[in-house]
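Most newcomers find our protein records easier to grasp once they have seen one. Sequence and backbone structure share a record, each on its own labelled line. To make this concrete, we reproduce a full record directly below:
***
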Amino acid sequence: MAGKIIINTEKCKGCGLCVVACPKNCIVICDESNSKGYFPPRPANGDCTGCCWCAIVCPDAAIEVQRDSSERIKTLGHQGKNSRATLVEDRA
């Protein structure tokens, strides 16, 4: 199942955890900073499998992974040391 990585670059603090977590090297750090001075990541290629590791490890909940055209995996923030991810169906 192919995936599409959606990054909210203004929420991102450029920690790079998503880059390390991606097993397909689909994410790289940008050369340009966001409005807060951080260097956010960007999708690098079309090899995303939709595994959602990038969204799961993101401490800022700045990443969504869209699978096909009807499913999104979105992190729901951190509660203590635990992050959660859930499947959200688009109702478009």
